[in-house]
Write a structure and sequence with these properties.
Length: 93
Amino acid sequence: MCLGIPGRIVEIFDAEKRGIAKAEVGGVRRNVSIQLLENEGTSIQIGDWILIHVGFALCKFDEEEAAATLRLLNGMGTAYSDEMRAIEKSERE
């Protein structure tokens, strides 16, 4: 299963040309594409919360909504914990 998981933007790389940002998800920092959001006029800044699915930022939301989503995901049990293990493992490879 591949879930959409909240992440917080910690760095933005040359957004005008590449549309790549670094987001922190569960303590792991990953590069994500923010081009989909920027193409629809959504401005992304460091500290923003985004929903990430397969390396793409799908939407921007506030910290309260991100926290609620994380609580919901934690309540899913193995589906969420399996997804987080996959993220952590891919960071080491």
